[in-house]
Amino acid sequence: MKTAFILLLSLAANLLLAQTTEEEYQYVAYGYKEQLQKGMDDKKGYYWKPIFQYRFTYQEERFVKKITYTGLFDFEGLYLIGETAPRAVVAIFRKEDNMSKKDGVFLCVPHHKSMQGLLTESARYLKEDVKFSENILYHYTIALGSLAMALSEQKQE
């Protein structure tokens, strides 16, 4: 009985370790951009690791003509020191690929096992606050699929 209880607690702890916390979500969605803008160090106990970059072209109408842009999504993982799986991922959208990373739009992609509230907040933020055009949302969807493949390849290494 004791062994079963310890095993259950261990499983619960492992599940909790994989989840994005509210504090991590806030750091990824808002604090990381501020950190880059102010030249500050990473949050204590964490580090960032580039995962994947998705470059694409899209058009937007400006007055009476369409302008073509080369957009970019940079995906970086937030890792706890000593862990091999990201706690969360930031998607940094740059309207043009020569735009500075710190001037981009930062989106938190929480771990899929996170509390439903964080997943809902992430979706709400994308829909109501960011308001990407349909064209950029289309590319974001493709980029997220590519991110999933990149993460699965990292896991196999």
Question: What would your notes on this structure say?
Answer:
- By secondary structure, the protein is an alpha+beta fold.
- The chain is 46% helix and 29% strand.
- A four-stranded antiparallel beta sheet has the order 1-2-3-4, with helices on both faces.
- Strand 2 (65-80) and strand 3 (88-94) form a beta hairpin.
Key phrases:
46% helix; 157 residues; single chain; disordered N terminus; four-stranded antiparallel β-sheet
Brief overview:
This protein is of the alpha+beta class and 157 residues long.
Overall SS class: alpha+beta
The dominant shape is globular
Q: Helical proportion?
A: 40-55%
Count of DSSP strands:
4
Number of helices: 4
Order of helices and strands: HHEEEEHH
Distance between the termini: 37 Å
Biggest sheet layout: 4 strands, antiparallel
Give the amount of beta strand, in percent.
Answer: 25-35%
- As residue ranges, the low-confidence spans are 1-17
Strand order in the sheet with the most strands? 1-2-3-4
Gyration radius, to the nearest Å? Answer: 18 Å
Oligomer: single chain
Overall mean pLDDT stands at 83
